[in-house]
Amino acid sequence: MNPTTTAQRHQNMAAIKGKNTQPEMVVRRFLFARGFRYRIHHPRLPGHPDIVLRKYNTVIFVNGCFWHGHADCRYFRLPKTNTAFWESKIARNQARDQKDQQALAKLGWHSITVWECQLKTEEMRNATLESLALTLRHIYLKDRAKRYSLSEEDNPMMAAEASERSLEPSPSS
Ligand SMILES: [Zn+2]
Fold it and tell me: Given this model, what pLDDT does residue 167 score?
C-alpha cells in the first residue's frame, strides 16, 4: 500500500473519529435532532448527569468504558503496570456510579447509561441511539400510564370514560 495514502487515510479517520465519536456529543446531537430537549451537566443532581431530560424524568450518563469499568467490555483492560492502583481507582468509580444512580432513583429519576463502546462503529451507534429513543418513549408512556391509573379512582370524568368503554361490544358477545 502506498504510504502517503495510508497516512492520509489515518488522518481522515482521525478527523472523522474526532468529530463523530466524542461520545457525549454524538448522543446529544442525536437527541436534539429527534426533538428531545435536555439540559446538560445538571449541577444539583447526584453524579452530575451528562444529559437531563426533565419531561422524561430521565438522566443519561455517557460513560467511557475504562474510567467507569464497563464489565465484560473489550475496551476495558486494566493496565499491566500499577494494576492494583487502577483496579481500586476504577472500583471506586463504579461504586460512586452505583451510589449516584440509587440516589437519582430515590429522587424519581430514571438513569440510562450509554457506553462509549456502544457508539464505536456507525452500525452500533445507530442501533444504540435508536434503542435509546425507544427506551425514552417507553419510559414516558409508562410514567403517564402510572399517573393515569393513580388519578383514575378519584376522577369522575375518567371513570365515566371507562364505563362507556365497557358498553362497547366485546369480541366474545
Ligand atoms: Zn464498553
Answer: 46
For residue 61, pLDDT over 80 is answered with yes
pLDDT of res. 157: 52
Identify the CATH number of the domain in which residue 122 sits: 3.40.960.10
Distance CA 100, CA 111 (A): 10
* 144 Cα: distance to centroid of ligand 1 (angstroms): 32
Please give the backbone phi and psi of residue 59, each rounded to the nearest 5 degrees, phi first: -115, 150
Is residue 73, in this structure, part of any structural domain at all? yes
Q: Around ion ligand 1, which residues have CB less than 5 A away? A: 65, 70, 73, 75, 115, 117
What DSSP designation does 144 have? Answer: H
pLDDT band at 18 (very low <50, low <70, confident <90, very high): very low
Looking at the structure of the chain, the number of domains it has is 1
